[in-house]
Amino acid sequence: MAAADSTIRIEGASQMTPGSQQVVKVSLVADSAVEAKEVRFELVWYTEGKGDREEAVVGWKTLHQGNLSAGQSLSDELTITIPASPWSYDGHVVSIAWAMRVIIDTGRRKTSFTYVEPIVVSPYGRPAVPTSP
Amino acid sequence: MQALQPSGDILDKHMSNVSMLIFWLGLVALAGGYFGFIGLLNVVLGLSDVALGISALIGLAFLLGFWLLWGRFTNWVFNWLATLRIDLPTVSVSDNPAVIGDKVDVWVEAPIKGNVNIDSVTVSLVLHEWALLNIGTTTDITTHDNVIVSIPRPGGSYSRGNKMVEQVTLEIPPGNMHSLMTSTNQLIWQVSVRIVVKGGLNLAPRYPMTVQAQIAQTEVN
Questions:
Q1: What would be the CATH architecture of the domain defined by B2-6+87-214?
Q2: CATH code of residue A40
Q3: Is B81 buried (19+), middle (13-18) or exposed (0-12) by CB count in 10 A?
Q4: Number of alpha carbons in the 13 Å side-chain half-sphere of residue B100
Q5: Range of the domain at A32
Q6: Percentage of chain B modeled with pLDDT above 90
Q7: C-beta atoms of B175 and A129 within 8 A
Q8: A83 touches chain B (CB under 8 A)
Q9: What is the least distance, in Å, from the CA of B78 to any CA of chain A?
Q10: Which of B185, B189, B214, B217 to mutate: most A Cβ within 10 Å?
Q11: Which of A48, A52, A58, A120 should one mutate to test binding to chain B, selecting the residue with the greatest count of B CBs within 10 A?
């Protein structure tokens, strides 16, 4: 069955301070059997805007290896350290975004499934923006 | 106090566009002249297809070389004209790298090479966004300038051998982003100095500096 037939939740703060430690709860219930190589959690930042997309995985953990049976559930509590930079940024041609994601990796791009939870990493509680005094 | 190095074009945008226009006009005129000449030869002498093909290849190679040299030459001429009476300013700052919230003292010094009337000097703090997009074999660069703070100063009359000196304080306001350098997405903090010269070409060099991902601590009394 498809990896998308799963219920995934990532619980944690939606706004995080650079350099802080955060506790994140990850849970997954496979609604049907899933052929998977592994299920992993990733903390990433990536660029958006007019340039080529760049992405960096700054933290990850393998939550499960192998297939998931129907009804099988996974649950994990992770402590993640948020890097000091880059901060979330909303610009005109360059933007920086952060996200936590759970990937059900089937070994094939077409059938793998990624659940994404956007977050803001900034000392301001919102993305940095060009600001005049 | 730390000296910053200029980067990129030293002319203001308007003059850069004029320089670019002259560059392209020269190139088009040369291409038109060359291929017009070959066409005329063909009409008068009745050149063979092989001779025409070879002439076209020679013309294209010649234009490519000219394209490379002519660009450098027009740039050099405009830069030389712009710095004929006033030299490229040196810029020093109190903090580099700086952090968000810092008040950065900026010193601008420009040696005067000939008598000159300066209308105004504007020192600005710019957050320059730069993005490179690869599309197939071509690359497309998009930029945007966020002028965070701009301090205009009146100019004056200067005689040869003197120095034009300006000192301003620029604040990097909280809420802003730190410097970012990746291969295709960059956020570059720059000190921009725009010198408007009466009857001459304006100078607008930029001096990149680094702003770290920190917020300045404020003293609490």
A1: Sandwich (2.60)
A2: 2.60.40.640
A3: middle
A4: 21
A5: 6-121
A6: 58
A7: yes
A8: no
A9: 30
A10: B185
A11: A52
